[in-house]
Amino acid sequence: MSNQLFFTPGPSQLYPTIPQHLNNAMRENIGSISHRGKEFQMIFQETKERLSDVLNIPPNYEIFITSSATEIWERIIQNLISNNSHHFVNGSFSERFYDFTTAYQLKSTAQISDFSHEFGEFNVPDEAELISITQNETSIGYSFNPEEIKNIRENNS
After folding, report:
1. Structural domain includes residue 7
2. Which of 73, 127, 131, 143 shows a CA-CA span of 20 to 30 A to 83?
3. Residue 98 burial (10 A CB sphere; 0-12, 13-18, 19+)
4. Residue 116 gets which letter from DSSP?
């Protein structure tokens, strides 16, 4: 078993304790509580606090919990991009998001790397409102170096 943790809606490692957690959730009726109710709000707040602590997320950041990548892409397009996005494409997942933005007729650009190679440069057009980086490209087993992500962010603030 790998010691890596993934908080994604895609392929995820499942632990042997999952059936026990599901049984506890069923016994406590967690799946049936209202997402607008106080009980859910308390669970959600505790989840955010624990994730922030474990992942060292700064207090001025938000945590979003989604159901699928397609939902994420749609919400990003609807809420964060007016005209332009820039995508680092190096696998099927990152390519699909880029294709998704062009289907919405955005003026998206992409820096495409051979799916078996790392990016040589990190050029982002000035007009890009959003920079898309797929950190874990599971289609090819590639993980984007966190230091490179940090540098891209610092150079395009």
Report:
1. no
2. 143
3. buried
4. T
Q: Are residues 73 and 112 in the same domain?
A: yes
* Of the candidates 49, 46, 69, 74, the residue with the CA atom closest to the CA atom of residue 59: 49
pLDDT score at 10: 57
**10-residue stretch averages of pLDDT, the chain, 157 residues long:** 50 81 91 89 92 88 79 88 94 90 93 81 92 85 86 89
pLDDT of res. 11: 60
pLDDT at 115: 76
Among the listed residues 63, 106, 103, 61, the one whose alpha carbon sits nearest the alpha carbon of residue 85: 106
DSSP string for residues in 26-82 = HHTTGGGS-TTSHHHHHHHHHHHHHHHHHHT--TT------S-HHHHHHHHHHHH-S
Q: Would 131 be classed as within a structural domain?
A: yes
Q: Is 121 left (phi over 0), alpha (psi -120 to 50) or beta?
A: beta
Pair (47, 103) in one structural domain: no
Return the pLDDT at 12. 65
My answer on whether 73 and 118 are in the same domain is yes
Q: Token digits for 16?
A: 């042997």
> Edge to edge, what strands does the sheet with 130-133 contain?
109-112, 85-89, 130-133
